[in-house]
Each structure stands twice: as C-alpha cells, then as structure tokens.
Write a structure and sequence with these properties.
The complex is a heterodimer of chains A (about 450) and B (about 325). With about 450 residues, chain A is α/β, with parallel strands linked by helices. Chain A has two domains: about 180 residues, D-Maltodextrin-Binding Protein, domain 2 (3-Layer(aba) Sandwich); about 220 residues, 3-Layer(aba) Sandwich (D-Maltodextrin-Binding Protein, domain 2). Helices cover about 40% and strands about 15% of the residues of chain A. Chain A has 18 helices and twelve strands. In chain A, strands 1, 2, 3, 4, 10, 11 and 12 form a seven-stranded mixed β-sheet that branches. In chain A, strands 6-7-8-5-9 form a five-stranded mixed β-sheet. In chain A, strand 1, helix 2 and strand 2 form a beta-alpha-beta unit. Chain A starts with a helix and ends with a helix. The N terminus of chain A is likely disordered. Chain B has a domain of about 220 residues: Orthogonal Bundle (MetI-like fold), CATH 1.10.3720.10. Helices cover about 75% and strands about 0% of the residues of chain B. Chain B has a two-stranded antiparallel ribbon with strand order 1-2. Chain B is globular, with a radius of gyration of 24 Å. The N terminus of chain B is likely disordered. Classes of the chains: A alpha/beta (about 450), B mainly alpha (about 325). The interface between A and B is large, with 42 and 55 residues.
C-alpha cells in the first residue's frame, strides 16, 4: 500500500548520497561525445531539435540528446539528478531557481568561456545577460529568450461592447478607481440577462462573462496577475534587484494595488478565487467566460488555437506614473558543474546563445529570442502568421520593463506568500494582513 | 493477514502460547530453534527488502530529523531544533488539524458504507459479477481517480456542476472552497476504497459460523438485534484490523491532494504528507521534513497501538 513519503525520501536520499561520492571521475577536456540537454516547453522542442541537428552537423564529434519534461517534474528531477550524478550536462534554467543552484555550487561558471570565445554579450537584449550573474559575480547562464505580459482580449466581445482596438491599447489605471482599465473591465462584464457590469441592475451573482479572467493570486511575484500594475506605482518587490534581502509587501502602494484588484471579485467583474482551482485561465477564455486575460507572450500560440474565438493583444495599461510596465523574465541555458564533458557542454551553450540557433527559434514564432536581431526576426515571423505582437515588444522598445525579483530562498518566500495572497484574494483577510506575511518573509533573511 | 486471522478463529487449537507443562514447553522451544535455519532461509529475501527499503531509510530518516539538510551538500547536526521549531509552526498544527478532519470524515463514511456493502454482499448480492464490480474503483490508480473527479467536479466545466446548475442550484467549488476541499477529497477516497474495505469485512462476515445465526433465529432475535449482538461482536477482530489499516492509510493521504488542490485553498487541504512533501522537495528542507515524518510515524504507531489494545483486536469472542 502507501509508504510514508518520509521513508521514501530518506531512501532516495541514501541512494543519492551514496552515488554522490562517485562524482570524481576525470572530466574530459576535449569537446566531443554525447551531451544531454533538458528543456520544459514542449512548444519549443522542434526549434531546439533543429538547433541540435545543425550543431552536430558543424561539430560531428558532439551529439546532443534533448529531453523535454513538464514544468512540474522538471525541477525535482533536476535536483535529484544533481545529487545522483545523473543531471543533464546542459539545461534550461529559470531566474527563480538558479540562485539556489549557484549557491549550492551546481552550476559551471561561464566567464572563462565567454572571455575566451568572445561571446558578444551586447548582442543580447539589454538587461538580460546581467540577470545571470550570481551573487558571487560569476556568470551562470547565457540568455536564450525573454517574455513580457500583455492583455489578451476576445475581439468579438470588445467589438460588441463598442471598444476599439485603439481604446484597448490606451487604457490607464490607478489603484483608487481603476481608471479606464476598470471601466473597460466593467463594461465587458455581462450577467445572465445581458446587463453589463456598469449598468444599473447588474446581477453580480449571476455573471455570464467576466470582464477580467483570474489565474490565481500570483503568490509573491504576480508576474502575469498584478506585477504590471503594482510596478507603475513605483513599488518594487525587494530593496534591490537582483539579490534583495528585504521585501516590501508591507508597502501601502502594494497593498492598495492588491486591494483594488481583489475588489474586482467583490464587484463581480472577476471570478472568485475558489473557482480557479482546476480550470485553466486560457481554457475559460477559450470557452467565452472571460473577455480579458492578463498573461505572458509565451501563450500567444495557445490562445490562437481556440476555435471561434478571435484573440487580440493590447499592451498593459498605463499607471499613475504615466507609463506602462511589464515584468521582464528571461530564460537561459546553464551548464551543470558535475558534467563529464564541460568543453562540449560549453560549446553547446554558446551555440544555443548564438545568432545561428536563435534565428532558428525565431523562425518558429513561439518565443522571443534573447538576441536583439533574432527577436526582431521572431516578431516578423509572428506577423507572417497574422499576429501583431507589438503589445509585448513595446515594453522592450520603450524600456518599460522591470526585472523578475531575483532573491535567495525563493521557494520559502513562495511558501509564505502564496497562502497569504490567497487569503486576501478570497476575501478572508484584508490586504493589510500582507504586512504580517512580509515580516515572516523578512525573517527568513535574518 | 486476513486468512491467518480467519483460520485462527475456525481452528482454536492452532493458537500458540497455550499454557503447557515445563517439559513440553522446552521441547517445543528446541523444535522451534531447529526450524530457525529453515525459517531464516525463507525470510531472507523479504528481509533484504525490509532492511534496504524500510529499516535503513527509517534510521537514516530519524538521523536526518536532527540535522539541517538541503540534499545538495552534507547534513549538519542541529540537535532537536527541528522538533522545537515544529511546536511553534502554525502550518504544522494546521496540517495536523486538517489531516485529523480528513481521517475522521474518510474513516467514518468509509467504514459505515463498507459495512453496509459487506452485509449486502453477504446476504443479497451473491453474484460474483456484482461483488467484483464493487471493487472496480479500487482497481483504478489513485491519481487517475483523483484527476477523474477533479474534472467531473470542476466549477466551470465539470459534469457534476452542470447537473447542479441544471437543477437550478448554485454551483459548488468542490476543490476550490475552503469548506468543501477536505470533504470532497475524503469523499473521492471513500468512493475508491469502500469496495475494497467492504471485501475485507465481507471475508470477516463469512468467517462467522452459521450455527450462531441459526440459534439466534430460533430464539426469535430480530435482524437488528442479531446484527448488534452477533455480527458486530464476532466481526470485531476483522473490524479492528480493517480500522488499523485504513486509519494508517488515511493519515498518509497524499496523491489525491497533490494532483488536485496541492494543499490549497490557502491552507485548507494541506494534509501532513503534503506539508512534508512541500518542505522536502519544494523548499529543500529535508531535515525538517524528516522530523515531521518521524512525528507522523510516532502518531501512527500510537494510533495503531491504541486501537489494537482497546478494541482487543487480537482476541475473538468465538472462543
């Protein structure tokens, strides 16, 4: 029957610690052999498979074996692999995860290679390469792509509500009354009898279409949920970024933003948090249950696949500072410190970070590659498919991005902030309760 | 385990430990020692598994519970700090509360329903097909069952909510609301396990000799009276075994939570196993997670002991 997890974990730990001792075999300095590469996004697999084929053509001595694993399994399998000595030589890395791996000395520093092979760091979109420089000043990854967030809206609904694409692209927001952003959301909300959210007699308990969809409370980052709003108030998650050690969830600017956002539920413009368990934000949009979704550009492809729904894109609203904002997240490829084949691994990472590979990725129109010129090619590839992605690229062009908060102990911060944010959003606690959660978070760094 | 129990009841002579005179006892002990080699030979394969996968990991788990260990790197000895931290850990107490709530609902409903089913199987449904059908949910993997219900009970697109809506009632966020999450998870697991539990109880019912019932009916006892005065007392050893096994299994609920709510909403369904998993594999805090596991282990041992002791699970009223 069922075994206790503790026992299973301990068993795994033993097996792992035994094999960890065997990691001392000499590393090959020649760039040849087979290397393993992991990524989590199945949509990007074809592009990277082509990169691998091209790479092997140019370097017949090196074979690249690509494994794709879903996000949920990816990180635990990777951690186990580090300990067991079976981790991939090269893998796609995330900003929320790499600080811990770097601190635990699991990542190979790429500084020597970058210097020796003359990798042009300035060919990447500004700000991206620096994200991967650890607290110790060493470089642990070469950027591969970036993402921003935007408004995904149902064109048929905005048309029938009399909102033009231009209006949608020029919304403004403030935490007091929500600005024209809230007006649009209210107007797009309809109840079962067809009354709009801003009309008299609107029945908020029988909503047919919500103006704004809800994915979840966003935990401590709110990347696609609220960070694009809170940032326009001048709020930042940490005292400095990267490597902040003091969090600012007690700031009234932040709490006002969250209070306004949670208030949409009370007004009937956004679904209750409890209804989001199980349902995917995108699928509810596809089913016509929400007019606007705020989410990231990596989902453009998925939103385009819903039959009978025409999805259009608008940039995030302008905030009290008169500017838009979007979190700027970027992935990179890192080399595992325990690789048997560092030379070939570094070579593969450099190829992944080169124009040759990133142009291939660009041509598939799934994500925006990190190299500026490749990113422009991706925008053209999207355009060729009939998708206008300017809502996402505008942040990079106008410099309205801000960085994903990179900090140590991300998993523990998340463990505190997720329940705390859930409590506020479900109406159990006021936004001011986040001050207490903030104290708990800051205690982690004492 | 089931078979040995029933056998013991049918054949009281086979019960060991009957008081005998000194000489025979000594002879018996010698004979038993003579069997030792053979016994060890047969136990050996199972022993390897036990030592390798249970004993050593358990001991190491206990050791790790006194350390700070992030899996990458070596464990550092910190004494009882993990345990003292647990006392002040609100999430731990919340997890214990949630788990107890789950166990109460799960075991309560499961045992009553299973007993009803077992009686039906015993008295009414003699067809092997129907008896087999009751076991069907148990033959489906836990995670599949959980996902199946997760979709059927979905707030927006689940068939159950469609039906509720069609009847004109408000939709229910089964997995999403704090009040419903644990009862829903408990109900899903009751649905999966009741057939299996019923089968165990059914085996127990079959071991009750028919003549006792015949005497009861001759005395003109009503069916209710027969149930409470004959069936229940004579079913007790099996019932206790079933309770011990199901309560222990119930305390360890994990998969259903992991694939549905993941511990939410807020902290409403973060059962103890889920909390251990999150601490160990989410936050890489293997030391603290081990300490939690040790506590869970102690609680389960205590629960099993209390059940066996006070419900007299190793004695039968048939003697």
């Amino acid at each position: 029957m069922k075994k206790t997890i503790g026992v299973a974990a301990a068993a795994a730990a033993i097996a792992l610690s035994l094999s960890a001792c065997g990691g001392g075999s000499p590393a090959s300095s020649e760039a040849k052999g087979e290397i393993n590469y992991w990524l989590w996004d199945a949509n990007q697999l074809p592009a990277y498979q082509q990169c691998a084929d091209d790479f092997t053509k140019a370097n017949p001595d090196i074979k690249v074996k690509i494994t794709q694993r879903g996000w949920d399994d990816y990180w635990t399998t990777l951690t186990n692999g580090f300990v067991a000595g079976t981790a991939p030589d090269v893998f796609t890395n995330h900003l929320s995860k790499y600080p811990e791996y770097a601190a635990k000395k699991q990542l190979l520093s790429l500084d020597d290679a970058v210097a020796k092979d003359g990798v042009k760091l300035d060919s990447y979109t500004k700000g991206l390469p620096e994200l991967w420089v650890g607290q110790d000043g060493k470089r642990y990854g070469l950027p591969k792509d970036w993402d921003t967030v935007g408004l995904f809206y149902n064109k048929a609904m905005t048309d029938s509500a009399g909102l033009t694409a231009e209006q949608m692209a020029n919304l403004d927001w403030n935490p007091k009354d929500g600005g024209s952003y809230e007006k649009a959301i209210a107007h797009l909300t309809t109840d079962k009898s067809g009354k709009r959210g801003d009309e008299a007699g609107f029945d908020k308990n029988n909503v047919a279409v919500y103006g704004l969809g809800l994915a979840g409370s966003g935990s401590g980052q709110g990347q696609t949920e609220w960070s694009f709003l809170s940032a326009t108030t001048g709020w930042t998650a940490t005292d400095k970024n990267p490597w902040g050690t003091k969090f600012n969830y007690d700031d009234p600017k932040f709490q006002e933003t969250i209070a306004w956002w949670a208030g949409l539920i009370e007004k009937g413009y956004m679904p209750k948090l409890e209804t989001t368990v199980g349902a995917s934000l995108a699928d509810n949009f596809g089913a016509g249950k929400a007019a606007i979704n705020t989410t990231g550009d990596w989902l453009i492809g998925q939103y385009k696949t819903y039959k009978g729904v025409e999805t259009a894109f608008a940039p995030t609203p302008k905030g009290p500072d008169g500017k838009r904002a979007s979190m700027f997240n970027g992935l990179a490829d890192s080399v595992w410190a325990g690789t048997k084949n560092p030379a070939a691994s570094v070579k593969w990472v450099e190829y992944l970070g080169s124009t040759a590979c990133q142009d291939v990725v660009a041509s598939k129109a799934v994500v925006f590659p990190a190299i500026t010129s490749s990113s422009e090619k991706a925008a053209e590839a999207f355009k060729a498919k009939g998708t206008d992605v300017s809502a996402f690229t505008t942040h990079v062009k106008e410099g309205t991005t801000f960085l994903f908060p990179i900090a140590d102990k991300a998993a523990k911060v998340d463990g505190i902030m997720k329940p705390a944010m859930d409590a506020v959003l479900s109406g159990k606690k006021p936004a001011s309760s986040l001050t207490e959660a903030n104290n708990q978070v800051n205690d982690l760094f004492k | 385990m089931m078979t040995t129990l029933t056998k013991q009841q049918q054949d009281p002579a086979a019960r060991p430990g009957l008081p005998t005179a000194g000489k025979t006892a000594r002879k018996g002990r010698l004979r038993r020692l003579g069997d030792l080699k053979m016994a060890l030979f047969f136990i050996f394969p199972a022993m390897i598994g036990f030592v390798l996968f249970y004993l050593v990991p358990t001991i190491r788990g206990v050791y790790l519970s006194f350390t700070e260990y992030s899996i990458l790197g070596d464990p550092t000895w910190i004494g009882v700090k993990n345990y003292t931290a647990m006392l002040g850990d609100e999430l731990f107490w919340n997890a214990m509360g949630v788990t107890v709530q789950y166990v109460g609902l799960n075991i309560g409903f499961q045992t009553v329903i299973a007993l009803g089913l077992a009686l039906l199987m015993h008295r009414v449904a003699k067809s092997t097909f129907i008896r087999g059908a009751l076991l069907l949910p148990f033959l489906v993997a836990n995670v599949i069952v959980a996902l199946l219900w997760f979709w059927m009970l979905d707030y927006q697109i689940g068939i159950v909510n469609e039906i509720i809506n069609w009847m004109g009632l408000p939709r229910i966020a089964f997995f999403g609301s704090e009040q419903w999450a644990i009862p829903t998870i408990a109900a899903v697991n009751v649905w999966r396990h009741m057939g299996y539990t019923a089968l165990l109880l059914f085996a127990g019912l079959q071991s009750i000799p028919n003549h006792v019932y015949e005497v009861a009916s001759l005395d003109g006892a009503s069916p209710t009276r027969t149930f409470w005065s004959i069936t229940m007392p004579l079913l007790r050893p099996v019932m206790v075994l079933v309770l011990v096994v199901t309560v222990i299994g119930s305390f360890q609920v994990f998969d259903t939570v992991a694939v549905t709510t993941g511990g939410g909403p807020i902290n409403a369904s973060r059962v103890i196993q889920m909390y251990i998993y999150q601490k160990a594999f989410g936050e890489s805090d293997f030391g603290y997670a081990s300490a939690l596991s040790v506590i869970l282990f102690l609680i389960l041992a205590l629960v099993a002991f209390v059940q066996m002791k006070f419900l007299k699970g190793n004695e039968s009223d048939l003697d």
